[in-house]
Amino acid sequence: MNGAELLLLSLATCYCNDIYREASKRHIEVYEVTVECTGEFGAEGEPGKNFQYKPTIRSNATPEQLDDLIQFTDQTAEIHKTLRQGLNISLLR
What is the DSSP letter of 43? Predict the structure, then answer.
């Protein structure tokens, strides 16, 4: 496993966990969540780009409830919000 794969895994894991959290608040039963994450990584030293993810959720929710849950969680997932706003990373010596 490399750092790029770990970054994609953290996006998928954060979203998955947050789906369960937000569904619980709405009293929605979630039976299964899978999240497929993709991104492009170029040459050495280049940042990743074109990050996308697609959740698949089995639940007792109506299609409308599920769509609302998916959209809301997309806006509240902490790792996603952090990356979308940009962040400073400092090397401490």
Answer: S
Report the C-alpha gap between 60 and 29 in whole angstroms. 6
Tokens standing for 48?
């990743």
**Cβ contact 26:69 at 8 Å:** yes
User: Left (φ > 0), alpha (ψ -120 to 50) or beta: where does 31 sit?
Assistant: alpha
Domain architecture of the chain: domains with CATH: 3-85 (3.30.300.20)
pTM: 0.90
Q: How many CB atoms lie within 10 A of CB 23?
A: 21
The answer to whether the beta carbons of residues 15 and 71 sit under 8 Å apart is no
Calculate the average pLDDT of the chain: 95
